[in-house]
Amino acid sequence: MTPKTYFIVNPAGGSGRVAKWWPTCKKLLEEAAIPFTYALTQAPLHAVELVKKAALTGFRQIIAVGGDGTLNEVINGLARQKEIPLSRFTLGLCPLGTGNDWMRTYQLPTNQQEWIKMLIKGHTRCQDVGLVRFVLKKSEKEEVRYFANVAGMAYDAFVVHGMTQTGQHSANALIYLLGVLKYLWKYKAHKYRINYCSQNGKTLSVETKIYTLNVGICRYSGGGMQLVPHAIPDNGLLALTLIENLPKTEILIQIPKLFRGTIGKHPKVQLLQVSALHVESAENHDLLLETDGEFVGTCRKVSFELHPEQINILCPKTEITQAQSPK
Hints:
By secondary structure, the protein is an alpha+beta fold.
């Protein structure tokens, strides 16, 4: 029997597409006799508080209705409450939003009737959850954010920040690609100091000019790009991609490789598996940070690690495509 499920519905998701399609989805759930409760989000980060309350009320299966941004808020709500272990929850996504990169890893159905069949079958698999600690420049106070897909710094966060300021959403493939091209000429690479713990336990350091830096649990972001093609969702490690500073014309040439997942073949790209990393500026410049396509802020220092527990993911019973091996 399908457990009672709590749906977190973002009516603004998908440029209003969620508000249009949710009544149909709700009707299909009722016709399938699936027990559920739902709540509509009213503002950014509202889902975090809704999820906390749902967890304490007794719900253990939480579904985000929207895109990657809604999913990010749901995972933050689950991870921030400390009364119930994260491993006792099942997280799902009904992909009606603009940004649906996370779902690509699990090959979630986009047809609502097929999605409901998946819900009824109830197949799950475990996934790691990313944790990032950062000190915002404006507050000088350490904060914590969780992520389910991919986090980015340097150029990746620069693009997301620019698009956020203009009211655009970065996760649509065409819009994100246009943003990449638009902000390329405004971006200046800086030198970063990166300390990371490798998968064999060694602590290593890198200090170099970085074009972009990405940390992934899953593989896809930016509308289908594979900035972390070597990410494995349940291996207990973070996939780290470091792309050193490149001429802007060279960056344009390499964009197709980001979609094909072959960027790791470039000599100035490092694909690493790490258990934790710490990022600081080597030039006293601001550090921009985004998680799951949502701009977090301007930081002084940033650290990444994994939540000590995995979460259960609602997904089809299919095999995830083998990730690219790191160089």
